[in-house]
Amino acid sequence: MAKTHHHSPAQRICGHVGIHIFHYSGRKGLADENRYAANSLCPECDGVIREWFQQPEPGFYKVNLPKLVSRTPSLISWGNRVRIAQLRKLGPVMKQIASESESDPLAALTLQVLEMMFKIDSASFWVDVDKHTYGTYSLGWDVEALIRGRETTTNPLGKTSVFGYWMSRNERVAKDAIEAAALLKPMLREYKRGSVVAEGATTT
To answer: What is the bridge-based pairing of β-strands 17-24 and 4-11?
Structure first.
């Protein structure tokens, strides 16, 4: 069956309308594309997260790191190295968005995800971060999952998902985060940055 390709506006998980590039075959394919778009950030919000991640201002964000746990000492050593490297990379990002989080709901949600990340005490999680990376796509997917409060078949979470980790290991932490995010959703929906652009290919 031939694939259909077109650009159309779609309501997004952030509450904004953004152009989505549809690629599908048949009614089921169209339904899946609609669900994917509805559970994704708009191009503008996605682009803001990417900009924070790729061009942070110099700085450091203080976090209390829990002691890593694992049955294998070598994994603890490996996990610690990865976690410190991630904190050096993401600390400036967290400092920048923390300064914007009181007025910008997307910044508050993004900071919430990153703070949850550094509360993870599983060495295996951090080893997975080293193996599979945690970049702008991963962060965006976690923000989306936090907003909707669950994983979806069209928007699956990977091994390095912060939200996915807490959903599988400690639902109380995940539910508290979902409740906090729910308070920000109306503000995010009303928050305006400027014109929304069409989706395009991006790299982490």
So the answer is: antiparallel
